[in-house]
Design goal:
By secondary structure, the chain is an alpha/beta fold. It is built from twelve helices and eleven strands. Strands 1, 2, 3, 4, 5, 6, 7, 8, 9, 10 and 11 form an eleven-stranded mixed sheet that branches. The protein is globular and about 50 Å long. The N and C termini lie close together (10 Å). It binds pseudouridine-5'-monophosphate (PSU) and manganese (II) ion. The site of pseudouridine-5'-monophosphate has 19 residues, from helix 2, helix 11 and helix 12.
Length: 312
Amino acid sequence: MAHLSEDFAFSQEVAAARQNAQPMVALESTVITHGLPRPDNLTLARDMEREVHENGAVPATVAVLHGKIHIGLNAEELEMLALATQTRKISRRDFSIALAGKENGGTTVAGTLVAASAAGLKVFATGGIGGVHRHTHFDVSADLPELGRTPMVVVCAGAKAILDLPNTLEVLETQGVPVVGYQTEEFPAFYTAHSGLPVNTSVSTPEEIAQIATAHWRMGMESAILVVQPPPAEASLAPELIEEVIQHALKDAEAMNVHGSAVTPFMLSRVSELSGGKSLQTNLALLRNNARLAAQIACALPSQPAHRIQSI
Ligand code: PSU
Ligand code: MN
């Protein structure tokens, strides 16, 4: 297989962490380019990196800049990405187009899994994964099959509540992805702690997650482990309020004929508008919370030797 090293660029800090086998946490960047409004997007990106540092690991925000896949961004690069107006939302299918066109873009959960796992990272934090959409027309996020083929620990607050959560869990099962509740028995619904849907097991410490991951990898499993934790209690929203807002936003998406990769960014921003900015505060709080737990898991895992990129 071809060497892909020339397509990758590592931040100084990540290059050193790879060399010294230090714990690292991958962070996605679609949340920066498409998921959050400015200037909250830059503040949040910095906050997530700080949470990872404060909990003993090295953050590696993944993005495409000028057609190169960056694993870790320096302060200027992070700012450039957060301020850029022309960015592509990069999932698995979008890399080649973005690389050939020397574009800038934010990587989705799927895109970040592709790039971070090629670089040998094992732990990744995001807000909420994509899933099966509630729309009448067919729309299933590329995050789900990618979780089925990438052996990383992914920390999130469940799947975004704008989705069909029961069907999203069914696809995760089909894809062989264990869903581990961190201090919860329920699959969280992103803006709220409760969906009424059970997780596969519940754990109370990062060490237990590291044990499950170790067993998963020892068996040669190729799928991810999805760690779900509810949004922080003080930031979670009333379930009736948020469901009403989601229903309203879904009707708007339908009326405005929003399709494809534009659906999730549209829904997140409409839900934020309709909730008077409350859902945005929840989103920011749970992202920081997930970065913190991911760093703790990375520190609990046995250290890994440096990894050479060979293929995606
Ligand atoms: N979590 C957030 N905000 C986001 C996303 C996740 O708190 O913007 C992004 C992730 O990058 C995820 C993407 O992969 O939304 C899902 O998009 P789609 O449904 O088009 O696959
Ligand atoms: Mn889609």
